[in-house]
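Exercise 3.2. Students should predict the tertiary structure of the chain below and write it as structure tokens, then compare their answer with the key that follows.

Predict this chain's 3D structure.
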Amino acid sequence: MKEELTTDQQIRRKTIKAFVGFGVASLLPFGVWKWINSSPKLNNTFVPLRKMLEFNERLTGKLLSDSRLAPTFPLSQAQKKVRVNGGVGLLDSIETNYKVKIESGDRKFEVTLDELKALPKQEIIFEFKCIEGWSQIQHWGGVRFLDVMNHFKIGQKDAENLYKYVGMETPDDKYYVGIDMPSAVHPQTILAYEMNGKPILKKHGSPLRLIIPVKYGYKSLKKIGVIKFSDTRPKDYWALFGYDYFAGL
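Answer key:
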């Protein structure tokens, strides 16, 4: 016959088992962390984590379509004081004869802001989302990037195929992004020259910036100086620091 344990003994035994179980369980995440920390790096990110980012990119990329739109809001909900986040590439003064350099295949030319403003205007009020965890409903106006491509006949490498990527850079080349073509031609992607119905301020990317509601904010490049089309991934400022290249929502 087993001796019956007192209540205190039972509590003590269960406590010991719980601590042992917790200790064993804690070894698993520690082992995973040690394995990740000892793995090689790719683009400043440990390879296992980079593989996970690539998996997320494939998954969110399949969900992207022209019919999947970012939610929009009434004008009354747009913030009057738009949050500023980041100023890389904005230190140079705004040129009076501002032009955007375009490179599409063998074609290289420049486009003025007035030429872009002559195209149909598109306004959007959406929730701008930052990777840092904050979001804000904002009101932007400009021209759809797809309309720019169609008007100037750029981005198409032959009669049936578009290039796979669009690269954009600030005039000083200090900030740059790479955008997959499906996201670039999404109907909500615009080259914005207005914020809250007025010309964009310097700190927000004057005189022209990218607004791409289907991605996190770090892809919406301020002060566009160069637009390039290619079949290879353009350089991307934050991807070089280990952030997700696709950055889809």
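Discussion points: The chain has two domains: 7-38, 45-241. Residues 7-38 form one domain.
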